[in-house]
Amino acid sequence: MFYSSVMTAAWTPSLFGGGEPAPDPMVVPRRIVLDETSWVDLAPAWLTGADAWFDAIVAEAPWNQRRRRMYDQDVMEPRLTCGWRVPEAPDPAPAVAEALAARYGVRFDRVSANYYRHGDDSVAWHGDRVRYTHEAPIVAIVSLGASRRFGLRPVGGGPSTRLTVAGGDLLVMGGRCQHDWQHTVPKWPGAGPRVSVTFRHDDPGPRP
Ligand SMILES: O=C(O)CCC(=O)C(=O)O
């Protein structure tokens, strides 16, 4: 297995997760340079009130379980998903999209949410489809709920990067990350429920 760590504690609300959900303007992301043209920004506790958003989105979002074609078979994805155009997305997603646009210089149009109900839910190694239309897409992910591992590995092989994302954290992939790197949220036995809220853009965005 890729990760050796095992988390046994179920998710409990964090000390800083209460109140109205909103980006904290004082929290500045730290850039992790993956290679000459790819990077990841990580900002722990970027969103205050993450627990309130987690509770609301779990209860109210129109969750679906998608099917994926794998090895000539249709399989159910091991997580639930849903998506909106930004103006129709439930609060605080439009305000979060605006804060991200101000920092990253692209207009975020689409929001999707992924619900990992327990540690057996996951997403396999992949690059996002936005790479087919964008040279340097920015993909921003706000984590809510329990902590999970987030892995990145170069498409051509080489050492992987392992991060942990907790409720309220912001992780942003940029440059050629979707082309030259893959990412995953692996299964993590004992993990509590987590939602990732992902912001993507249709406009071409910055060059790498
Ligand atoms: O849940 C996450 O943090 C990652 C989601 C993701 O990679 C995807 O939906 O393409």
Subunit organisation of the chains = single chain
Q: CATH class, anyone?
A: Mainly Beta
Strand order of the largest sheet: 2-3-13-10-15-8-7
Stretches with pLDDT under 50, minimum 5 residues? 1-9
Instruction: Give the helix/strand class.
Output: mainly beta
Number of helices: 3
The CATH topology corresponds to Jelly Rolls
Compressed to H and E, one letter per element, the order equals EEEEHEEEHEEEEEEHEE
DSSP helix fraction: 10-25%
Query: How many β-strand stretches?
Result: 15
Mean residue pLDDT = 90
Tally of distinct domains:
1
Q: Span between N and C termini?
A: 33 Å
Main β sheet profile: 7 strands, antiparallel
CATH-level-2 architecture: Sandwich
